[in-house]
């Protein structure tokens, strides 16, 4: 549990205590114990397959337990699968506990609502369409509980500001869990039918096929990401002075995007934009990238072609979306003094304005052949001084708030040892990377 922040551990402990209180009310009669045991084994098998292919949860069996069992018994269904660490991984105890109590609390709440609305009788009597009402309410409650728990943990761990910890979580989970809820309801109805549990297993076949298709999509996306990683490593090998710079610009871009309240898809896009912003340096002669002295005007013009080179390199990677615009325009300046096209103000895409701030911030806090690393506070002061002229004040403010809340670990990226700066080098500069 050492790798988990103390407040997050407290959140996990509180959830575990609440789950234990739910389990204390386990019924001692009128429950055929083979049912929760069979559902738990089935859920464990499904989770094993799904987690090997996808980083997700298989809800049909979980919801079938909510529709079939009393709430405390339903809460037992996810425990055997999630208390065990994934194959090949050694998860911290707090993470394993969280993966167990999170679905247990959610399915317990869903089962309570389902029973209160008469869903048990509707399932036994195959009473359609009335059975859809309590089942839909149970799905909604399950999503609400998951949202409450996930947002609480995000806030406790300091991943996002508390006021934004729950933003978008419910909307993203509702549709996929609702589809799984229909499959879970079909399982429950067949389970209580004369055909028994063996017929209920047939419902899992189309769900497994859909998971396989989704896994194919994720494998394709992983292949794209591997290609991106290879491009970044090639840049790092070519430009030793900026080794690791791309990764840190991606991290800083994520901090800004989250502080601005962007949804997870845009945050991921901004991460890719930050990581790939300098990929065009593969088209720049190595001697210019590693030159210790000042650049001549002709050499600077060659360097300034790297955003266009980068844009051409990633043009065919469709899932990058607006990240391609960030790669092309991350050296534009608000007052029109940037390159390659001299765009100004709102002409510069929002994603490019974010990456520009992240790039300048890491450039100032990293030692290179032509500049020594500045303290974080000095870099923040310089960004604030240039806000409105070079950088978007909104993006600068977001980065400053995020850095002061979450901290930042500046890294010396030059292969050469640090040196004492001359008075000319101490002159104010915004840290724009070559």
From TrEMBL:
InterPro entries with a match to the protein in the record: Cyclic_di-GMP/3'3'-cGAMP_PDE, HD/PDEase_dom, HD_domain, HD_GYP_dom
Domain annotation HD: ranges: 242-364
Stretches that traverse the bilayer: 58-79, 130-149, 169-191, 197-215
Record keyword Transmembrane present: yes
Span of domain HD-GYP: 220-415
Pfam family, one: HD_5
Keywords assigned: Membrane, Transmembrane, Transmembrane helix
PANTHER family attached to this UniProt entry: CYCLIC DI-GMP PHOSPHODIESTERASE TM_0186-RELATED (PTHR45228), LIPOPROTEIN (PTHR45228:SF4)
Record's protein name: HD-GYP domain-containing protein
């Amino acid at each position: 549990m050492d790798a988990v922040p103390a407040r997050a551990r407290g959140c996990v402990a509180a959830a575990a205590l609440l789950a234990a209180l739910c389990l204390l009310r386990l019924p001692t009669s009128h429950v055929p114990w083979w049912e929760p045991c069979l559902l738990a084994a089935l859920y464990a098998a499904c989770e094993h397959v799904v987690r090997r292919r996808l980083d997700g949860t298989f809800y049909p069996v979980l919801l079938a337990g909510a529709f079939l069992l009393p709430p405390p018994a339903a809460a037992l269904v996810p425990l055997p699968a999630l208390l065990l660490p994934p194959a090949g991984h050694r998860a911290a105890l707090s993470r394993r506990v969280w993966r167990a109590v999170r679905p247990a609390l959610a399915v317990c709440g869903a089962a309570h609502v389902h029973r209160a609305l008469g869903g048990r009788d509707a399932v036994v009597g195959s009473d359609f369409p009335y059975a859809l009402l309590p089942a839909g309410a149970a799905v909604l409650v399950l999503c609400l509980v998951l949202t409450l728990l996930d947002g609480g943990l995000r806030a406790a761990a300091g991943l996002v500001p508390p006021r934004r910890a729950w933003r978008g979580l419910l909307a993203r989970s509702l549709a996929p869990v609702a589809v799984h809820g229909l499959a879970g309801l079909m399982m429950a109805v067949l389970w209580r039918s004369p055909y028994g549990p063996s017929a209920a297993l047939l419902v899992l076949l189309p769900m497994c096929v859909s998971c396989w298709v989704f896994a194919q999509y994720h494998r394709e996306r992983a292949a794209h990401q591997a290609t991106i990683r290879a491009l970044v490593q090639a840049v790092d090998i070519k430009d030793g002075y900026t080794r690791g710079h791309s990764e840190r610009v991606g991290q800083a871009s994520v901090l800004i995007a989250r502080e601005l309240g962007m949804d997870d898809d845009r945050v991921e896009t901004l991460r890719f934009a930050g990581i790939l912003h300098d990929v065009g340096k593969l088209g720049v002669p190595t001697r210019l990238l590693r030159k210790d002295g000042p650049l001549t005007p002709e050499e600077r013009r060659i360097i300034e072609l790297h955003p266009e080179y980068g844009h051409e390199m990633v043009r065919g990677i469709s899932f990058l979306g607006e990240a391609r615009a960030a790669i092309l325009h991350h050296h534009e300046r608000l007052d029109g003094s940037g390159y390659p096209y001299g765009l100004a103000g709102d002409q510069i895409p929002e994603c490019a304005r974010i990456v520009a701030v992240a790039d300048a911030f890491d450039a100032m806090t990293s030692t290179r052949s032509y500049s020594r690393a500045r303290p974080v506070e000095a870099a923040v002061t310089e960004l604030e001084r240039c806000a409105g002229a070079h950088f978007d004040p909104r993006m600068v403010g977001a980065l400053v708030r995020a850095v002061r809340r979450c901290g930042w670990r500046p890294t010396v990226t030059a292969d050469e040892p640090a040196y004492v700066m001359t008075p000319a080098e101490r002159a104010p500069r915004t840290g724009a990377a070559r």
